[in-house]
Structure formats: C-alpha cells, structure tokens
Amino acid sequence: MTQTIDIDIRGQICPSCLLLALKELNHHGAAVRAGSIEIVVTTDDRQATATIPATAERMGFRTEVTRLDDGYRIRIFGAT
Amino acid sequence: MEQGYLLIIASSLAIGLTAGFVMHRADFCVTASFRDMFLFRNFFLIRQMVLLVVISMVLFETGRLANVISLYPFPLLGAPSLANAVGGFIFGIGMVLAGGCVVGSLYKMGSGSTASALAVAGMLGGSAAYAEIHPQWSAFAKSTVLLKDAITVPQWLGMSPSALLVPLAAGGGIWLVREFRAGRMSRPGFAKGHLAPWRAAVILALLGFASYVVIGMPMGITTSYSKLGAGIESLFAPAHVEHLAYFSLQPLNYTPPFFDHAIQGGPGPRLDAIAAIQYPLIFGIIGGAMVSALRLGEWRLQWRLPRRQLLSVLSGGLLLGLAARMAPSCNVWHLWGGVPILALQSLLFVAGLLPGTWVGARLLTRFVVR
To answer: How far is A37 from chain B (nearest CA, A)?
Structure first.
C-alpha cells in the first residue's frame, strides 16, 4: 500500500513549490524510491510544472503532471 | 493630442501586451533565472537570458549601423558610479524576497497572483520613499562616479562599438549553438499553452528592439513606479510631495525618433513623457498576462499566502522600489537594454545584482520558506 504525502502550495510565492517538494524528497527519498511513499504537489505555479519534474527526474524519481480545475497536480514517485 | 505621442502610447501598449502574454506563457522570470543558479545550481533560465542579451546585442548594433537607431547610447543612461552596483545589490535581495522583479511581478499580478500585487504595492511605497533620501543618495552617487566621460565600454576604451560587440556576439552565438545542440536550451513543459523560454527570449529581444526604434529607448518602467507612488502620496500629503525636490526633477529630456521637438519627463506625479512611454507598457504587461491566463482558463485570485511570505513580498517590494531609484532603473532596463550595448551603469548593476540575489536566496530559505 503506497502512502501519499500531499502538499498544497497554491497561492504561495515562487519558488516555494520546488523548495518544499525537495524538502519532502530529502526526508522521504528512500521510501519514495522504494515505492512505499509518493509525493503529490498541488500548485497553481506554471513554472513548477517544468522545474519539479526536471529536478526530481535528475534525482532518479519519476513524475507525472495532470491539470486540475484550479491548478496542476504533480505526482513524484519511485519504483513501478 | 499630437501624433508622436499617440505613436508612443500605442506602440508601448502593443509591446507591453505582447510581452505580458509571452512572459506568462513561458513563465519568463528574470528573478528565477538569477536565483535558481544559487538556490538549485540550475542554469537553464540564465541561458535564456544570455540568449536574449546576445540577440539584442546583434539587433541594437545592426540597427545603429543601419541608422534605424538614432539615439546611441539611449537616453537616461549616465556616468557609471558605485551607486549602480549598490542599487543592483539591494535590487537582487528585493526581487528574491518579492518572488519576482518589477516586470515579473506585473505579469504574475496580471495572471491573478495577490502575492505579486502586494509586491507591486510595496514597490510603489519604496519608490515614493526614495524621494526622502534622494538628496543624500544623489550626493553619494556623484561622489562615487568612476568615469566622468564614458557611458559605454567602447566609449571608455575609445573603440568603435562594433569592434567590441561583433566578437562578443559571435562568441556568445557559438556558445549558444552548442548549448542548443546539447539540448540544454529546452526542457519539457507540461503547463497548458506552454511557450518554450527560448522562443520567449527571441520575442522579447525583438520587442526591446522595436521599443528602441520607435520610442528611442528599450523597455523601462520604474520611473513610473515613483510617479504612481507620488500620485498616491499626494492624495494624503500634497504639500509634502510638492516640497520634495526629487519629484520636480526632469531627467528625461530627448527628441524621440518620430518627433521634431524635445519632450520631458520625470518621477513627479504629472502626466508627462515618462507617463506616455511607461504607463501603457505597465498596463500592457498586466493586461497581456491577464488575457493569456483567461484564455487558458487559469485566471483566478489566490489569497492563501502564509504570514511569513506576506511579510517577505511586502518587504521585498519595498526594497525593489527603493533600489530601482537608487540604481537607477531595474534589471530589465539594464539586462535587456544596457548590457547589450555594454553600458557601464548596467554592467555595474548586474555585478551588484549577483551577490544581492545570493543574499536574497539565503534569506528566503532561512526565514521565509522553511
């Protein structure tokens, strides 16, 4: 069973999204990599939809971006 | 109204609308380009700024040689002084704390960000507050002038602009081609209606060139922040505003390309040449970003700003407003306008901006986003 950590960063200033996503990744990196935790970021920052996937994928994680009614959802996960 | 003014107002508005639209689609943030180098060791956006500067360098110099650009160097640039670097340093801190520079905050505000609207309010306050320290600051700027008779590096070295700009642009061009080929100039964008930042850099360089050809100067907006700030202040303390020497200055006095007489403007709350040039640009950038966000169905007001961030954007905005008057002018004016012609003031501004951004990034991670 995969546990989900939700972080809602809508309305916050740039670059809160990437900073807070990285903070969670640093805390739970091993568990995300092993597939027991995934991090889901909800944001209205368009730039984060490019910076978070680029940074997370460089660190070896996988990402998926979906559009919501009021922003974007970026899922960061590890093993399939 | 005379036709020359109509041309200035219409072209400024068109340039602003296009710039706002493009910056929103590409999220073309100058603050992020500098900040992310220090914060994340990420150089993607700063490469786009280099692209913008190199293209502007080629366009401005070609325009000068072809006599399409008549005012060279452009108005409002002056002798380099330590004040430019100090202004740039404070500007760097302010833009990181505000989450965007004076132009970036406008397009973000246009797309519905209340955080950026607060930053802009801070900038108006800071720009008006500068009038209180202007006599002392202007004395400091005068006493730290580094070169009396040179505005650009070629003037300082006694060379023709082409002798320096052609090899520099060629070197920059070769480097950029290599970056493009290595795939470092683009990255996947998942936002709806995403525009690749390199395309935005090309369009913004063309807009800067259009501004230089038609208005006689590249894009600049910060004197108008003083103007708006002074206008608001005069509603509450008209006598005080009247009394401040800074608001009666007329630093802009030039004959634009399509005029047969000189026009003047300054930071006071009058409707003058500065207002004709800059107000339409400001409202254009806000409007362009708003149109872009509305068309994507992404325009909405967000109010959920944590208290630390609220204080950060307000104080960042104040610092930006103050620094933009101390420098004088903003990063867009210096980076997209002055650096491409190697204006000494602009190079000093950028030299101050870099350590300022580093300090801002440290403050941000230590006190604001934790």
So the answer is: 21
Name the token pair of B17: 């609308």
Contact between B96 and B364 (Cβ < 8 Å)? yes
Domain containing residue A34: 1-38+59-80
Which B residues, 226 through 285, put their C-beta within 8 Å of a C-beta on chain A? none
Q: Name the pLDDT band for B218 (thresholds 50, 70, 90).
A: very high
Amino acid at A56: A
pLDDT in tens, B256-305: 999 999 999 999 999 999 999 999 999 999 999 999 999 999 998 877 88
Q: Is residue A51 part of a domain?
A: no
Is residue B367 within 8 angstroms of chain A, CB to CB? no
**A to B CB pairs, distance under 8 Å:** 81
Query: Mutate which of B24, B190, B296 to disrupt the A interface (most A C-beta within 10 Å)?
Result: B190
A11/B305 Cβ within 8 A? yes
B19-70 pLDDT per residue, tens? 999 999 999 999 999 999 999 999 999 999 999 999 999 999 999 999 999 8
Q: Give residue B365's region: left, alpha or beta (phi > 0; psi -120 to 50).
A: alpha
Query: Which chain B residue is nearest to residue A16, measuring alpha carbons?
Result: B369
Indicate yes or no: CB of B309 within 8 angstroms of CB of A13: yes
- Position A11 in a domain: yes
As a whole number of angstroms, the distance between CA A27 and CA B80 comes to 48
- A16 lies in a domain? yes
Q: How many CA atoms lie within 13 A of B140 on its CB side?
A: 14
- Is B306 at the interface with chain A, CB within 8 A? yes
- Cβ atoms < 10 Å from Cβ of B307: 7
Mind listing the pLDDT tens digit for each residue in B227-256? 999 999 999 999 999 999 999 999 999 999
- Number of structural domains, chain A? 1
DSSP class of residue B105 equals H
Would you put residue A4 in left (φ > 0), alpha (ψ -120 to 50) or beta? beta
Any idea where the domains of chain B sit in the sequence?
3-368
- Percent of chain B past pLDDT 90, that is, above it, reads 96
